[in-house]
Amino acid sequence: MIIDGKDKELIALLSTNSRMSTAHLARMLGMSRTTITSRIERLEKRGVITGYTVQFSEDYERGRIQAHVMISSDPKSSAHIVRTLKKISAVRDLHAVNGVYEMLALISAESTQHLDQVLDLIGNTDGITKTTSSIILSTKFSR
Predict the structure, then answer these.
(1) Are 140 and 106 in contact, with CB atoms under 8 Å apart?
(2) CA separation for the pair 10, 110 (Å, rounded)
(3) 92 in Cβ contact with 41 (< 8 Å)
C-alpha cells in the first residue's frame, strides 16, 4: 500500500484532531477541500483509516481507575475471548502479547467497585485460565 507524503501529513493532522474541518485541513496542506475529501475517502476505502474516535481530557481520565490485566488463556479460545471482551465497554484495548501471558487488556473503570466487577467478568470468561492486574497510579507521559 503506497501512501504519499501529503497522505502522511493528512493522517498526522487527523490523528491529532479527527474533527478538523476539510477547509482547515486544506489550508494547512495547501490543497483544495475537494482534494482533501477525495484523499480521506480513498484512505477510508483502502482501509488505512478505519474509524474516528474521541480522546478524553487528562482531568476526565484522572477521575477514572485504569488498570492493565494480563490474561492467560487456552489458545483455542482466543476468538471467543476477543469477542467477549470486546462487548465490555470498560475494556479499552486488548493486545496479543508474547511471554507467560497471551493477552493484555487496558481497563478504564469509573471506580474501584466498577473495576472489581470488570475483573470478575474477565476472570469468568470461558477459556481464560488466569489474570494478573495492575492498577495504573499515574501516567508519566503518553503519545
Answers:
(1) no
(2) 34
(3) no
Cite the beta strand spans of 76-127 per DSSP E: 91-96, 103-109
Instruction: From 93, 75, 96, select the one nearest 85 (Cα to Cα).
Output: 93
Strand, coil or helix: what is 119? helix
Q: Which residue has the higher pLDDT, 78 or 17?
A: 78
Compute the residue count for the chain: 143
Whether the model pTM is above 0.70 = no
CATH 3.30.70.920 fits 59-135, yes or no: yes
Q: Which three cell numbers stand for residue 54?
A: 474521541
**pLDDT tens track for 101-127:** 999 999 999 999 999 999 999 999 999
CATH domain 5-45 topology? Arc Repressor Mutant, subunit A (1.10.10)
The answer to whether domain 5-45 and domain 59-135 are alike in fold is no
Residue-range domain boundaries for the chain? 5-45, 59-135
